[in-house]
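FAQ: What does a multi-protein file look like?

Like this. Sequence, then tokens, then the next protein.
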Amino acid sequence: MAAQLDAKDAKPPYAFKRVDAYDGGIGAFATRDLKRGEVILHEPPLVTATMATLEQRVAALDEKTRKRLFSLCDWRAERAKTQKTALGVFQANGYPCPTAREPDAAGVFLKFSRFNHSCKPNAHHAWRKGERWIFATHDVKEGSELTTHYVDLFMTSEDRKKALKERFGFDCVCRGCEPTPKLRVAFSDARRAHMRQLDEQIYDKASRGKHEAAIRDVTERLIMLEEEELDSPAAVARACDDAAQAAAHANDKKTEKEWLERARAESKLCEPPESSELEELERRLAKLGV
């Protein structure tokens, strides 16, 4: 069964407080121990919009929602000591919220916007059923900061830092970027670059009939994800699905089922109940009939 908020937990599993590392910004912290795959939060957006509809949508907000929206960071305006803008708030806090009608829409979330970035995050988020769902990617101790990621985690440390500075205005000092000695950063960069390469070549190998080689690449990627502490249920599920598809190309139903079952188990730790993604995995397993 997919992870859910326990009814007994009247108090949210997170609380907000100031974080000195981010110039006094706000962060989310665990109020109790969390298990891998546990739901931390699910939240509808304050507003969704495209670039073309942004000003109109924000202008139509009621006063309370508008006040909440503009309580969030617009780092460019704050740095320039000018008035916040809707575009600035969206650029600093927006996440993709695609719909059939607006596939390029973004949304801003009052609570989730307080979750800071880490290059080794302990929370995963997904846009499902009109809400942003946040799950623990690893066991989290009470008092630990809950972090997500704002940029591609498979870039080098320097490229991640550059992207974060340009897009969000801060210097990343997370444990993925600032370990000692610096040699560890170089090893981390090499692993992440290799994982990206593996990801890119798995489908190519499977489509060219190199099914066993593709599955070996998946296995190697899973090992490296764990070494980098990037083995979130979502990342593991995706890799396992890749292996299942490689087995399907080989018409190896037994191996395909084994990998699909693992993908399903991991997906239940990063998907809300009865999500279309889980339903699709169930459909594929039922179709195998093995």
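And here is the next protein:
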Amino acid sequence: MVIFKDIEEVEEWLAPLCYVELWETVAPYRIFGIEDREHCDGLIAKGTVKQSLILDCLKAMVRVELTKCFSLPPSIPEPVDALYIQSVH
């Protein structure tokens, strides 16, 4: 089980996962039940919803749940021009 320090780490962890990998990878966190998987598989099989859309939604749900579970702080992005900023004091 992975422990995260901020929301950005969760997003980076989820980014490369495909549909099947997502279900397997997040199983230890018990965010979804077997009925959730069956429901999503059914929607995809019937052609009701594209797999890519369901995957995006599942990743968002995992991000929200893990953020709550671990009380993760938002990541603070470094400004693009940070390399050029100097202290004059």
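Q: Is there any per-entry metadata?
A: Some entries carry free-text notes. For the entry above: The first helix runs from residue 7 to 14.
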